[in-house]
Amino acid sequence: MRNSIAHHNFTILKNENEEIGSIEFKDFPPRTKSTKTFELTIEIKPLKKFLLKFSEEMIRIMEAAKR
């Protein structure tokens, strides 16, 4: 996912209400679009849940490191 975002290889897909419903991530080898090495389509709700949990854990780790 990191490479997909960094290299702008993602597509925002709208739902039936014209809101962001999911995001499609893809990755390719450097300087080529020939062979896809990664593909993921994820709905917004589970992505948001994952990102919130991930952020909470990173904050916890950073705070623990300060002690």
What features would you describe in this structure?
By secondary structure, the chain is of the alpha+beta class. Helices cover 42% and strands 28% of the residues. It has one domain (2-66). It has helices at 2-6, 44-66, and strands spanning 10-14, 20-27, 38-43. The protein has a 3-stranded antiparallel beta sheet with strand order 1-2-3. Strand 1 and strand 2 form a beta hairpin.
Strand content: 25-35%
Number of helices, counting only DSSP H or I runs of 4 residues or more: 2
**Given the helix and strand composition, which structural class is it?**
alpha+beta
Low-confidence parts, pLDDT < 50 over ≥5 residues?
Answer: none
Annotation, overall tally of beta strands: 3
Keywords summarizing the entry:
67 residues, alpha+beta, three-stranded antiparallel beta sheet
Topology:
Blueprint (H helix, E strand, L loop, with lengths): L1 H5 L3 E5 L5 E8 L10 E6 H23 L1
Antiparallel strand pairs: 1-2, 2-3
Short structural description:
This protein has about 70 residues and is an alpha+beta fold.
